[in-house]
UniProtKB/TrEMBL annotation:
PANTHER family: AMINOTRANSFERASE, PUTATIVE-RELATED, ASPARTATE AMINOTRANSFERASE. Keywords: Aminotransferase, Transferase. It comes from the Bacteria. InterPro entries: AspAT_Ic, PyrdxlP-dep_Trfase, PyrdxlP-dep_Trfase_major, PyrdxlP-dep_Trfase_small. This is Aminotransferase. One of its GO terms (molecular function) is L-aspartate:2-oxoglutarate aminotransferase activity. It comes from Pseudohongiella nitratireducens.
Amino acid sequence: MSNASRLQELNQRLEEIKQQQLSLDLTRGKPATAQLDLCNGLDGALQGDYRCADGTDSRNYGGGLGIPEAREFAAEYLDAKVSQVMVGGNSSLQLMYQYVVHAYLNGVSGPESAWVNDASNGERIKFLCPAPGYDRHFSVCESLGIEMIPVTMDENGPDMDQVESLLKSDPLIKGIWCVPKYANPNGIVYSDEVVARFARLGKIAGANFRIMWDNAYAEHHLADNPPELANLLALSEAEGTAANAIIIGSTSKITFAGAGISFIASAEENIKNFVAYLGISTIGPDKVNQLRHMRFIKNMDGLRELMQSHRNILQPKFELVLKHLDEGLGDKTVNGKAIGTWTRPQGGYFILFDTQPGLATRVIELCADAGVKLTPAGSTWPYKKDPANTNIRLAPSFPSLEEIDAAMQVFVLCVEIATLEQAA
């Protein structure tokens, strides 16, 4: 069958689907209701006992570092020492934003270290942004007027030759965003060599450089024998660069997405200065929520048992997406090139699909016209500018299997239509 005949056939099929008036959404990596239900035991977990391990009353003011049992848990979760850890509120993104604002305006170690001091004569401070990456990281930079520099990613993580070259040549680069395990959106796990090179960046970067190490998916596995991530903080301590490493995590996709707890770890002096900064705006975090989490999760064994239940819900959804991609597009080519390529993540919340160059926007438009909403093209790049216009992030977690089945039928159809249109 010629490309023109095939395109006519597919367009007719798409028109038939439009008559169904679908309303499906694969845009964001939200936990499904069934996942949230796994943690309904948080409600009432305290049973009227609000005392922390050290005897303090979690209902009262204070405790900027977090309650003792939550700090011990966070230290194990983040591969850190208790003295290096602070436990916050429900959002790790909020902690990251607050830390960047703290570094930008107040300085990581006093006013003289404020990043804004280096932004003079119309110049701006800068962040390195491995791309494709997490859109909300990029929004933090945009909101503060921090210039973003995309960095190439491969199967091992960011291109460290590029990272090191940029840092050596520009002292205005003050940070780099990272999702080092099951990266958003491509599912990459940074290799041991890449993490070791990250630990040495503080030796070549300009003053007060920070690695924003957002380990959001540390325990979010979709495979047996999941890959291990090297311990950046421990490696940095060995290199004498621990102050450069800011390690972040949370329970946002473990317990209640909107009512979890978040963690941050770094050199002790960093944590001390950050807690002092936060103390200007709050007299302490929600310690009651921290305590009920510890009573419910108990320890890392309890967390990993819970995460297996999450996997039981998530894995069939990912497998269904991949089944549609394999069966609908796996062997198809146009003009001698694959219609698309996609990742097969071992964990995390996303599958990254790449169209042929220049087609992501058109595929998303076609899907939207058929009632399937996808993350806007370019969202995984700084300034929402995907230079090749190829990346499409698929988020299977929230929809039901039936909704995924319907949405993916539309998606593979639209990918092929867009590819044939361009080839015509």
